[in-house]
């Protein structure tokens, strides 16, 4: 029988195969539930009711997925009928058994459709979940009411609060699906299941009537445990507590009342700025992949890697590459350093073995792919080499001269430098087209951000290879131009100065850290400095002292602290005290005395700062330098700055990133703040030309976010 589209151009079509009406959703790329899909599904259920020959309905997705959820682009826009809860109700109320056969993603609204069906089957590729929490939402189409009734409060809360995906087997064990299909395709498996149900005269079976909440005491205990855990873990987040409230309604209220409460709470989440921030982050982290070079060129081969230097970064990068299955050759200066480099790598795996997260055999098999040498000739066959030696131009150039000598033609030659001029490094060898910056963050095997720094002469396919490497290593790549500090560290240097100015003007480092934490960061800037080691910044400041603008304000507190050998956690004191290796620091009266002395030396009478003022200054500095970075094309778009800060600097995801945050605050307000601060310090506070231009045009950063 011919496919009948629900309407002329509908992404939902239906066809009867014997006595089963097969409904297919075909809405690439992921079958999201946009308005046309919702209309099509409603029409298909109406057709099933009207078709006397149809004894059951089968819902499947075309392509790799069942349904990836609501169309995220529609959130925040005027809703178009029918709503998803209405479509789910139509499916659940259908008088004929409805089967959902799931392959690939059944996420969010997609799982809610499946929960509204009467029977569910999953093939091995299926992944089921209610990930709305990651977008600042809650499942708003019955997920909070049907999931607990079907699988119990504990399992439902865990699934909804974590937002994680469950595979087919786990879904069966949880009771989310009734059956596993053996083949890989949902359509034939689902059809066989539907026919079996028809033959057995299986009844319509509504999830709203399911009984998994029957044990009231266990359900209540699960709720209380989730409440306590969420209060601790989801500090500052809006939707998790709403999720618990909605699930509680599933325990205490009739279904229809629970649905009404779920809708009310869902709309509150939709209106929250956190939803806007989190959805911006979702699209931004996909948008960063679309750099011009990834469209223009194909990546080179990436099978084997070399690393120069086995210190903090070299060892971390080696682990990241080993974890991705690549063979890695490490080069060090001498045998002693090589042994240390190898030990740095092994230490990571020994830690995992000790925690029971890796078997000793698995460690051995990973380490079998690792080799070390003090001779560059060992890199002759490497497809990519990443240099992570000392931050010193002469040392880097010497390393690149060796790479130029030994590496095969076409090998990608990357530097992990934090600040140095990569154009200069590239110009020093005979193949500048092969040289790229790959700026990993510490610890490199954990941190997700990878800045791909694009020097003037690099070939597009080398840049594309950087993006391919990021994918292989499960990192988030951001394209950056060459400048002092690229995107992230360049902006960091500026807002760190703003923090230092506030410290000298009267705010204690502890007040500043607390304000930054209350904004949503896991740590404040002075805690970060103590964690990373104050000596690194001290060395950089000394190196740059000669070229510093003599008119620029320079706060010396950090130097006074470093001069005492207080480098942070590793020396048990920095801005904070860490007695007996404690990880959480305690305020140090001696540091406060040093700051006081520095204020006196600089002739400053300290004043108090409210938390609001601290954050206005901190963010204004970050946003202004972010605007400069975009203006100078160091970052392609504001969203590239956002992703850099979300993945490299702990910026709270629910605020979307500094540039999204600026849009939400309003650019005129940010500019007015900068102009006000400039009255005291016009050298530091210079409004970015881009910020000024956007305010004049009445535009925002989002208007610059279109892909290149
Ligand atoms: N609504 C609108 N667009 C969506 C979408 C959704 N629910 N889910 C994915 N997309 C888009 C992506 O933005 C991307 O678009 P692009 O190619 O223009 O960048 C495209 O679909 C492919 O997504 P991608 O994530 O790159 O594909 P993948 O195969 O790696 O992963 C999923 C597929 C479904 C697992 C993943 O996209 C996902 O988790 N989606 C969100 C699911 C969700 O949160 N649903 C609940 C909504 S309330
Ligand atoms: P590190 O001092 O821990 O390690 C450097 C290693 O390079 C040492 O083991 C040293 O023996 C080795 N080395 C030095 N010269 C060599 C040579 N000629 N040949 C072979 N090996 C040599 O330094 P690190 O913190 O790992 O930093 C390395 C690079 O990564 C620097 O460019 C730094 O700016 C950059 N970086 C550091 C961080 C960080 O947080 N530490 C973050 C991003 C980037």
TrEMBL record:
Catalysed reactions, as listed in the record = a (3S)-3-hydroxyacyl-CoA + NAD(+) = a 3-oxoacyl-CoA + NADH + H(+)
Q: Which residues form the 3-hydroxyacyl-CoA dehydrogenase C-terminal domain?
A: 485-578
Protein source organism: Variovorax ginsengisoli
Places the protein is found: Peroxisome
A single Pfam family it belongs to is ECH_1
The record's annotation in SUPFAM superfamilies points to: 6-phosphogluconate dehydrogenase C-terminal domain-like, ClpP/crotonase, NAD(P)-binding Rossmann-fold domains
The record's section on InterPro entries has: 3-OHacyl-CoA_DH_NAD-bd, 3HC_DH_C, 6-PGluconate_DH-like_C_sf, ClpP/crotonase-like_dom_sf, Enoyl-CoA_hyd/isom_CS, Enoyl-CoA_hydra/iso, NAD(P)-bd_dom_sf
Q: Can you tell me which family this protein belongs to?
A: In the N-terminal section; belongs to the enoyl-CoA hydratase/isomerase family. Belongs to the enoyl-CoA hydratase/isomerase family.
Q: Major location, coarse class?
A: other
How it assembles, according to the record, is: Monomer.
Instruction: From the UniProt record, give the pathway where this protein acts.
Output: Lipid metabolism; fatty acid beta-oxidation
Q: What is this protein called?
A: 3-hydroxyacyl-CoA dehydrogenase NAD-binding domain-containing protein
Q: Where is the 3-hydroxyacyl-CoA dehydrogenase NAD binding domain?
A: 305-480
Looking up Gene3D superfamilies in the UniProt record yields: 1.10.1040.50, 2-enoyl-CoA Hydratase, Chain A, domain 1 (3.90.226.10), NAD(P)-binding Rossmann-like Domain (3.40.50.720)
What's the domain of life for this entry? Answer: Bacteria
Q: Which UniProt keywords apply?
A: Fatty acid metabolism, Isomerase, Lipid degradation, Lipid metabolism, Lyase, Multifunctional enzyme, NAD, Oxidoreductase, Peroxisome
């Amino acid at each position: 029988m011919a496919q009948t589209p629900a309407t002329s151009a509908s992404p939902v079509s239906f066809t009867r195969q014997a006595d089963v009406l097969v409904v297919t959703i075909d809405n690439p790329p992921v079958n999201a539930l946009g308005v046309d899909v919702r209309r099509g599904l409603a029409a298909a259920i109406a057709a099933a009711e009207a078709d006397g020959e149809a004894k059951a309905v089968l819902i499947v997705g075309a392509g790799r997925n069942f349904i990836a959820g609501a169309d995220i682009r529609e959130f925040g826009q005027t809703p178009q009928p029918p709503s998803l809860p209405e479509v789910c109700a139509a499916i659940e109320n259908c008088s004929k058994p409805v089967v959902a056969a799931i392959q690939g993603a059944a996420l969010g609204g997609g799982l809610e459709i499946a929960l509204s069906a009467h029977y569910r089957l999953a093939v091995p590729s299926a992944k089921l979940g209610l990930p709305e929490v990651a977008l600042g939402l809650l499942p708003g189409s019955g997920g909070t009411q049907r999931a607990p009734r079907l699988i119990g409060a504990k399992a439902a809360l865990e699934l909804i609060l974590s937002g994680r995906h469950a595979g087919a087997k786990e879904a069966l064990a949880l009771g989310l699906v009734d059956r596993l299909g053996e083949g890989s395709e949902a359509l034939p498996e689902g059809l066989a299941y539907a026919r079996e149900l028809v033959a057995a005269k299986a009844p319509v079976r509504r999830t709203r009537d399911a009984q998994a909440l029957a044990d009231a005491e266990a359900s209540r205990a699960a709720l209380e445990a989730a409440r306590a855990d969420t209060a601790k873990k989801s500090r500052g987040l809006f939707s998790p507590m709403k999720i618990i409230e909605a699930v509680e309604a599933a325990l205490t209220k009739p279904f229809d009342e629970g649905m009404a409460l779920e809708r009310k709470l869902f709309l509150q989440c939709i209106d929250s700025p956190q939803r806007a921030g989190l959805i911006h982050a979702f699209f931004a982290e996909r948008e960063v992949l679309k750099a011009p070079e990834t469209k223009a060129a194909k990546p080179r081969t990436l099978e084997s890697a070399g690393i120069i230097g086995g210190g903090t970064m070299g060892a971390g990068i080696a682990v990241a590459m080993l974890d991705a299955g690549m063979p890695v050759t490490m080069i060090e200066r001498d045998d002693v350093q090589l042994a240390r480099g190898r030990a740095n790598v092994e230490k990571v795996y020994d830690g995992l073995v000790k925690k029971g997260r890796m078997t000793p055999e698995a460690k051995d098999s990973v380490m079998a792919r690792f080799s070390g040498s003090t001779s560059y000739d060992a890199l002759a066959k490497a497809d990519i080499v990443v240099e992570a030696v000392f931050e010193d131009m002469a040392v880097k150039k010497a390393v690149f001269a060796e790479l130029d000598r030994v590496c095969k033609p076409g090998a990608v030659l990357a530097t992990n430098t934090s600040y140095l001029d990569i154009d200069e490094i590239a110009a020093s060898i005979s193949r500048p087209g092969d040289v790229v910056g790959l700026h990993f963050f510490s610890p490199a095997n954990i941190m997700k951000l990878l800045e791909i720094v694009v020097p003037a002469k690099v070939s597009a396919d080398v840049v594309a290879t950087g993006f391919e490497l990021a994918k292989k290593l499960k990192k988030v790549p951001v394209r950056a131009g060459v400048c002092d500090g690229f995107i992230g560290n360049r902006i960091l240097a500026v807002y760190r100065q703003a923090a230092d100015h506030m410290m000298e003007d009267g705010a204690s480092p502890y007040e500043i850290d607390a304000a930054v934490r209350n904004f949503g960061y896991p740590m404040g800037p002075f805690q970060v400095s103590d964690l990373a080691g104050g000596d690194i910044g001290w060395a950089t400041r000394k190196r740059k002292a000669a070229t510093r603008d003599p008119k620029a304000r320079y706060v010396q507190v950090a130097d006074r602290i470093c001069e005492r050998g207080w480098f942070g956690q590793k020396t048990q004191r920095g801005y904070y005290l860490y007695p007996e290796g404690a990880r959480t620091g305690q305020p140090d009266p001696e540091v406060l005395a040093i700051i006081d002395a520095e204020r006196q030396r600089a002739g400053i009478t300290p004043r108090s700062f409210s938390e609001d003022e601290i954050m206005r200054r901190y963010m204004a500095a970050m946003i202004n330098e972010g605007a400069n970075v975009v203006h100078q094309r160091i970052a392609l778009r504001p969203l590239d700055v956002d992703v850099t800060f979300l993945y490299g600097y702990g910026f709270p995801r629910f605020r979307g990133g500094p540039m999204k945050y600026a849009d939400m605050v309003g650019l005129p307000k940010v500019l007015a703040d900068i102009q006000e601060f400039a009255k005291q310090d016009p050298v530091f506070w210079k409004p970015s030309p881009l910020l000024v231009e956007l305010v004049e045009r009445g535009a925002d950063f989002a208007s610059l976010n279109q892909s290149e």
